[in-house]
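User: I'm putting together notes for a lab meeting next week and I want to include a structural view of one of the chains we've been expressing. I don't have a solved structure, so I'd like a prediction I can at least talk through. The sequence is below, exactly as it appears in our construct file.
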Amino acid sequence: MKIIRNQKSKAFTLAEVLITLAIIGVVAALTIPALVQSYKKAVVGAKLAKFYSTINEAIARSEIDNGDKMTWDVMYTVSLGELYREGISAKEWYEKYLARYIQVLKTEETNTHEKVFNVYFPDGSMVGIWSVHMAYYPNSKDYKEDQLTTDDGEEYTDRKRTDSGIKYFLFHFDPYNKNNKQTYNKGVVPYMDSNFDGSNEMLKNNPKLGCRQDVTNERAYCTELIRRNGWKIPKDYPLKF
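Assistant: Thanks for the context. Below is the predicted structure for the 241-residue chain, given as structure tokens.
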């Protein structure tokens, strides 16, 4: 004799479904922003490492054809339209020493006060070169958003300094300067001026250039702070992307 059991299929009630969706929503709200921040940090760190490697490899290759970088022409320095140091333009320097040794999408010479020469890379990043300084943007679109203007519409600056350490990062090429052991006889390095004492404390807390929220100039030392962490954004990095 067969015994037939009455089996009823179980299903979630509407209340149970709504509670489950609410829990999922709360978890997503808590975790997604952290995941987005983590992803952005990973992308920025990877692009910084790539730029650092690419430009220094180009300099090394150029030295084979153009001699030791210590003998290269110096770029002139212009600030707010005033010439501070004689030399060749950033455009002339790039075309003479780097153009043949680096792959780019395009270049452009700006008409801003610092006479920056912009170089755009295939990965969507760009670097602005002027004097001994370089401002690297992991996302070149951020550079366009950074352009500030005066009341009469004239371009005034080449970067929005409150975005330093977030949208752009400063590098230095000054191998001729014996007064700066951070740059002397070296290629492109993270920005460190002659006053830098080499300590992590100064990188983080210098009131003028430190990697902190409130600085009087810009967060130039953030680049070196990241380099010391293996080109990964430190967990305690004080700025949000």
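A couple of points you could mention at the meeting. The two ends are 72 Å apart (CA to CA). The CA atoms of residues 20 and 26 lie 10 Å apart.

User: Perfect, that's what I needed.
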